[in-house]
Task: inverse folding
């Protein structure tokens, strides 16, 4: 599923993790075929993008960007994972814009075409996480 999902996203021009299949042996014994998935971490973002920023990986797949206030601590489960010196200003601005301005103005804080493509590919391949 990951191989097909990530491959579909790449086919539609999205930057995403690379995948590969691997035959694994342990002490000469065949233990099976596995799917390798590139981690989306600091190294991934540095190699694919030319800017520095924060990475957030929400806990729940049904996470929302509902405005919960002006303090990042109010967003339990947002899981900030990269960018140790952040003030979370960009994240808080994104949430504010998504909740307070018309959709036609979202492109100031979000690559709307990429977000819609991501959602469409996920729906098409039945990927619910």
Result:
């Amino acid at each position: 599923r990951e191989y097909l999902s990530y491959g579909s996203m790449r086919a539609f021009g999205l930057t995403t993790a690379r995948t590969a299949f691997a035959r694994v042996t342990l002490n000469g014994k065949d233990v099976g075929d596995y799917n390798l998935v590139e981690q989306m971490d600091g190294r991934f973002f540095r190699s694919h993008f030319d800017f520095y920023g924060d990475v957030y990986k929400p806990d729940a797949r049904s996470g929302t960007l509902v405005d919960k206030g002006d303090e990042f601590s109010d967003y339990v489960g947002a899981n900030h994972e990269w960018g140790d010196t952040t003030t979370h200003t960009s994240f808080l601005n994104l949430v504010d814009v998504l909740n307070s301005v018309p959709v036609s103005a979202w492109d100031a804080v979000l690559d709307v075409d990429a977000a819609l493509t991501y959602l469409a590919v996920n729906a098409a391949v039945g990927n619910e996480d």
Summary: The mean pLDDT is 87. The first strand starts at residue 19 and ends at 26.
